[in-house]
């Protein structure tokens, strides 16, 4: 069975460590916040200027001056702080954030990522994505393994404009977990979703990936 | 002391505007935008503007108001996904657009305001953002050269000000405002409250008054883009 969105988020949450400062991208990555292990201290950074992001507010506590990078109203946990965009990106570009979890449109076999633009079609902008992939210590992508047309998204070379080069450390999809081997510059098939075969992953991946003799199963 | 307090947004902008000028505008989404100054800028009819702002507002609010009236010729932003009119004008070739990574934009404004001509960053290396720009290697890694930004005018939104122009921002409405304030040859701040001189804690001032030329007290609507709540 392929993983559902929440199971992908649950697997991504296994990348968290106690005391981590983490930036979660807009969309599916925000689900990871629901699976922070009990008792673990994780500080969520929102690049518009908030460290220590909390849950959505109660209706009576909504504050137009307190939003996250997705422009959603949020709250702060005890000990949260506010700062300017320059300080915020000082955290990101200065290598102070431990982990970023992002979505992607395409990944290359060397770990390039494209997730901000489709020429002639989608004009939204990169926001903070280029800064995150360039500056954060470890970058994890969670995404569907193929696009809406069923075409592979993990391909030899990205066809879309890049967000960053050789910057992705781990990929979690509904089918598998891929980890970048920095020496060989290829993803290694690390874990398979329950019931998913290596053959199915390879059939849906045109990038060259490395398959070890034994591959573990995603444990949730 | 030169008087920095103006009676209305229109008065606060009077004498500072000209066609073809470059204006940096604070805010993130609709949070912390100088909303009443933008309306006054629209009503002034100033055109052929280059607007430097992280976002472009939405169709009916913020910088979207100036797009609708075609007063903006060129935008420098990191993300414009919430503005359908922006996308339409850009796709039709009616609007020039320069995308900057968000951190690069913040740093360009900070650098410009601090008299720093440019800086090297890893952000954007190997992407179209770096095309045509100098690449230099430091400690074995490639960095791209980005220029600081100076503008003719800065428009910011703050929570509190005193008559000397000291500003305090509120929560995430701070965002780009402190850097934007420094980048302009003139800076106008729209604030929710003007308090007596000496009543702001000097340790808690975010933007010292030296960066702020004019202030105007307004009633902000503070629109919310995504009202998300937790029933529990």
In short:
The complex is a heterodimer of chains A (220) and B (232). Chain A is of the alpha/beta class and 220 residues long. Chain A has helices spanning 5-13, 85-93, 129-135, 198-203, and strands at 20-24, 42-46, 50-53, 76-82, 99-102, 106-108, 113-114, 117-118, 122-123, 138-142, 154-155, 170-172, 176-181, 186-192, 209-210, 216-217.
Structural class of chain A: alpha/beta
Query: What's the mean pLDDT score of chain B?
Result: 96
Annotated CATH architecture of chain B: 3-Layer(aba) Sandwich
**Average pLDDT level of chain A:** 96
Helix content of chain B: 10-25%
Which descriptor suits the 3D outline of chain A? globular
Q: Can you say what the CATH homologous superfamily of chain B is? A: Glutaconate Coenzyme A-transferase
What characterizes the major β-sheet of chain B?
Answer: 9 strands, mixed
Percent strand of chain A equals 25-35%
Which CATH-level-2 architecture of chain A? 3-Layer(aba) Sandwich
- Largest interface chains and counts: A-B, 50 and 59 residues
> In sequence order, what are the helices and strands of chain A, one letter per element?
HEEEEHEEEEEHEEEEEHEE
Please give the number of β-strands of chain B: 12
Poorly predicted tracts of residues of chain B: none
The number of helices of chain B is 6
CATH topology of chain B: Glutaconate Coenzyme A-transferase
